[in-house]
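in:
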């Protein structure tokens, strides 16, 4: 047992291929964030196999919850709120975390918060800064989503624009596959991009000048395909690195350009960037440059909370509670297609 004045949130995240459990206090301070990664299991297939993901969530979740409590020296009696991701994601994966969390909540008699995975990403840049979320313009760049969001308050989100086709992370992963790099392609491409020339090949910056907050990455992906087809095989190491650097430069130009334009249009004083792709070093540096150029404050999700994790779910539950938003019914359902603005 610890300080009885502190209340703790235990959160579960199983929306895709990572089994994750975390605990934060109701002020948003993260005590522990554990992730049992399934990346190695899915890598031989070049993508996530839903059946394999849910079977492993089922096997890994219970021991991970016990280990998480034990590591921080907490008991069930110390937990006041249970949270789980209810969507978007793979239905069979979401169900494991959602039903486990509801069962614990019923057994403990404490509130259950069903959390939108995208809200978890959205608020993650503020982890470690207390629980109050200031209004800002946000860019979420993950494997499944690319969107610009106006955050007015916790639970009050306006989607300003999103991708019409592939998400930025999806484009990284698909190009990685074309280049026969191990899955997931994002980290592989960014590592090789460091050694390549970003000006070696010119790829399109789709919709950069469209005047709105929409994105499209499928044309870029096709251009990379055509370029690879024209190269002698096997690809030289130098060519491979140059393709990675040039592709990454095109994605980053669009993401950063759109974020800058949108922040200006909205008169934002603060911008925030989250999601798996926000691990990308070039993207982080360029966001920093834009923030300095425009005199904006910048919050980047810490790399350990950029890719899927449960700390962001615990933090979102704590933030919702602080904002006076009550918990969810135990008869609430998962929603694999849940939209960010359906939260709250
Ligand atoms: O947020 P996330 O863990 O999962 C979703 O909710 O989709 O994001 C995973 C995505 C993958 O597409 C992965 O390739 C990409 O984030 N990613 C990166 C980097 N690290 C992860 N993309 C570019 N550069 C990176 N360093
Ligand atoms: Zn995610």
């Amino acid at each position: 047992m610890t300080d009885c004045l502190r209340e703790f949130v235990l959160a579960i995240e199983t929306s895709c291929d990572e089994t994750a459990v975390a605990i934060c206090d109701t002020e948003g301070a993260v005590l522990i964030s554990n992730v049992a990664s399934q990346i190695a299991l899915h890598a031989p297939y070049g993508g996530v196999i839903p059946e394999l993901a849910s079977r492993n969530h089922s096997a890994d979740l219970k021991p991970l919850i016990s280990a998480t409590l034990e590591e921080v020296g907490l008991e069930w009696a110390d937990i006041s709120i249970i949270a789980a991701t209810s969507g978007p994601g793979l239905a069979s994966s979401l169900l494991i975390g959602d039903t486990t969390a509801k069962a614990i909540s019923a057994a403990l008699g404490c509130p259950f918060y069903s959390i939108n995975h995208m809200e978890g990403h959205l608020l993650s840049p503020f982890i470690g800064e207390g629980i109050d979320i200031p209004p800002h313009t946000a860019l979420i760049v993950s494997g499944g989503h690319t969107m610009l969001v106006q955050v007015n308050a916790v639970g009050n989100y306006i989607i300003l624009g999103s991708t019409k086709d592939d998400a930025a992370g999806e484009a990284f992963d698909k190009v990685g596959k074309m280049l026969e790099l191990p899955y997931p392609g994002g980290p592989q491409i960014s590592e090789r991009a460091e050694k390549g020339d970003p000006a070696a090949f010119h790829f399109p910056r789709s919709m950069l000048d469209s005047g709105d907050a929409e994105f499209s990455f499928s044309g870029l992906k096709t251009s990379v395909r055509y370029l690879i087809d024209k190269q002698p095989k096997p690809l030289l190491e130098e060519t491979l690195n140059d393709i990675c650097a040039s592709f990454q430069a095109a994605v980053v130009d669009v993401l950063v350009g759109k974020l800058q334009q949108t922040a200006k249009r909205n008169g934002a004083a603060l911008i925030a960037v989250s999601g798996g792709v926000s691990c990308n070093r070039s993207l982080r540096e360029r966001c920093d440059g834009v923030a300095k150029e425009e005199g904006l404050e910048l919050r980047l999700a810490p790399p350990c909370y950029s890719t899927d994790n449960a700390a962001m779910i615990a933090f979102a539950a704590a933030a919702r509670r602080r904002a006076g938003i009550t918990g969810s019914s135990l008869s609430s359902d998962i929603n694999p297609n849940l939209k960010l603005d359906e939260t709250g």
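note: The first helix runs from residue 39 to 42.
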